[in-house]
Amino acid sequence: MSQVAEASNAPHPDIHAHRLLIVDFGGQYTQLIARRVRECGVYSEIHPWDLSDDDVRAFAPSGVILSGGPESVNLDDPPKVSQAIFELGVPVLGICYGMQSMAAELGGKVEASQHREFGYAEITPGDSGLFGGFSDADSGKPKLKVWMSHGDRVEDVPPGFTVSASSPNSPIAAMEDAERQFYGVQFHPEVTHTLHGDAIMRRFVREICGCPGDWTAGNIVADAIEQVRAQVGDGQVLLGLSGGVDSSVVAALLHEAIGDQLTCVFVDHGLLRHNEGDQVMETFAEHMHINVIRVNAADRFFDALAGESDPEKKRKIIGANFIEVFDEEAHKLEGIEWLAQGTIYPDVIESAGSKTGKAHVIKSHHNVGGLPEDMRMSLVEPLRELFKDEVRKIGLELGLPYEMVYRHPFPGPGLGVRVLGEVRPEHVEKLQLADDIFIDELHKHDLYNKVSQAFAVFLPVRSVGVMGDGRRYEYVIALRAVETIDFMTARWARLPYEFLEHVSLRIINEVDGISRVTYYISGKPPATIEWE
Ligand code: XMP
Q1: How far apart are the C-alpha atoms of 398 and 4, rounded to whole Å?
Q2: What residues act catalytically?
Q3: Given the DSSP bridges, would you call strands 453-467 and 63-66 parallel, antiparallel or unpaired?
Q4: Does residue 367 line the site of ligand 1, with CB under 6 A?
Q5: How far is the centre of ligand 1, averaged over its atoms, from the C-alpha of 532 (Å)?
Q6: Rounded to an integer, what distance in angstroms lies between the CA atom of residue 227 and that of residue 233?
Q7: Nearest CA owner, ligand 1 atom 7
Q8: Distance 265 CA to ligand 1 centre (A)
Q9: Which of 16, 122, 190, 225 could connect to 257 by a Cys-Cys bridge, CB 3.0–4.6 Å?
Q10: Each residue's pLDDT expressed in tens, for the chain with a length of 532 residues
């Protein structure tokens, strides 16, 4: 038995016993608040602001955080939380709109500010249980640089509250009622721009709410193993393994929990990165002794893609074939009762927040695999509670290689959308080699972890080059590297010129049929990260 499995048999604390309720008013940083709480070692869940009184009480939080939001409390019918939250007898922290809403509900006054504040502001903290004692180390003054983003502001604090910080633009930048342990901050402690933001969050979560901080990678793994064992008993489980972070962590976790009861199907569509298929097999089948069926389906995918150059049609072909191949393999297996999926917490929040309600949505992502329609299988989703950064941490805890766990994202259709136009095997091969050189050099120059995503793209246009005495008329490779937090917007990475020159030379010298390398410098927007 491995160390991890042994650890899971040892008693561990109930890591859900202390939990924070994050009430979502639709703010852009709500997920970040929940992640910051978890970084303090405490479990948190996000729920919409109209959560019922019964649900609030049933959740039994050790503390509540009210998020920011785009509305104004002076609307006719503003979003506001149930009074039950203020009657639980636990600490409450309102952030931005959350503070304004708390002020309005408890008898204070909120008005539209003459000066909207977006960006840095300097506050002077008073005697506060939340951030008293923190100061700007550079200036030595008891001031804090904070991140503001608001139009309205609190004009009068509710009865029982005192003003705990002010700024030139917000005379009431923070308020608190020390007795009831209600706190409001106009600024955003959850963003890194706020000086001591993490310490403020920690003080609230650990000291004021009194949570012990046992939400750690080791405990999460032990708890997840226990839950999977209880859920599936001695049933057989099937997992579509893609080599991506989520399905890899599910594979490692299920293997620890149920060993040979797990069978993985790895569909190699021939559009993976250089040697990626072999690496997946080496990690899971050879090193970890996990039951993995590799389906080499490259020919089938290339045949299906022949003659097609429309990006969306290519995506559909790849997706549909992926599910077909996966289904065919699944039907060959007998006695499978469970299908495992790498659903993570942001997927759960998204589907719960959608108009279709809180239905259990099966991820149709083709790199995860679909549920064969005529196979009655129940779902096991051991990562449902976790954010991506937590999935990575438990991946390391489970012994997966760092490079696999911290790999840049890779799209489900793989190189199918990085060979522009028609996908031909010979073009995919050139792209694999060029991409491998780029990624290898990024690692060697310690740049890989400084960019969020980097890859090469094959352009099916030929251009003239000279090599030695000969003229060449060959293809173009474009390099792409971006910096981004959420992949919704991105900035092109300012890679050093010498580095780009070195990569360009290696690609032209080592990859047959490439005579030109370009670096792509459009941001998102207006461009996207991928080319198709
Ligand atoms: P774009 O190109 O839309 O990419 O700026 C944003 C992020 O999404 C990834 N991406 C995909 N992932 N299937 C996927 O699983 C897809 O069809 C797909 N298209 C783009 C892209 O790599 C980037 O991380």
Answers
A1: 7
A2: 96, 188, 190
A3: unpaired
A4: yes
A5: 9
A6: 10
A7: 487
A8: 23
A9: 225
A10: 566 656 566 688 999 999 999 999 999 899 999 999 999 999 999 999 999 999 999 999 999 999 999 999 999 999 999 999 999 999 999 999 999 999 999 999 999 887 777 889 999 998 899 998 888 887 778 899 999 987 899 999 999 999 999 998 889 999 999 999 999 999 999 999 999 999 999 999 999 999 999 999 999 999 999 999 999 999 999 999 999 999 999 999 999 999 999 999 999 999 999 999 999 999 999 999 999 999 999 999 999 999 999 999 999 999 999 999 999 999 999 999 999 999 999 999 877 753 333 333 333 333 334 455 666 789 999 999 999 999 999 999 999 999 999 999 999 999 999 999 999 999 999 999 999 999 999 999 999 999 999 999 999 999 888 877 788 899 999 999 999 988 989 999 999 999 999 999 999 999 999 999 999 999 999 999 999 9
Q: In this structure, what token pair is assigned to residue 188?
A: 């955003």
Neighbours of 75 (CB within 10 A): 8
Q: How far is the CA of 530 from the centre of ligand 1 (A)?
A: 6
520 lines ligand 1 (CB under 6 A): no
Ligand 1: centre distance to CA 408 (Å): 11
Query: Ligand 1 pocket, 453 CB below 6 A?
Result: yes
Ligand 1, residues 418, 530, 532: which to mutate, most atoms within 8 A of Cβ?
Answer: 530
Would you say 112 and 151 are in contact if contact means Cβ atoms under 8 Å apart? yes
| Residue 328 C-beta-side C-alpha neighbours within 13 Å | 12
Q: Whose CA is nearest to atom 12 of ligand 1?
A: 411
Residue nearest to atom 19 of ligand 1 (CA): 411
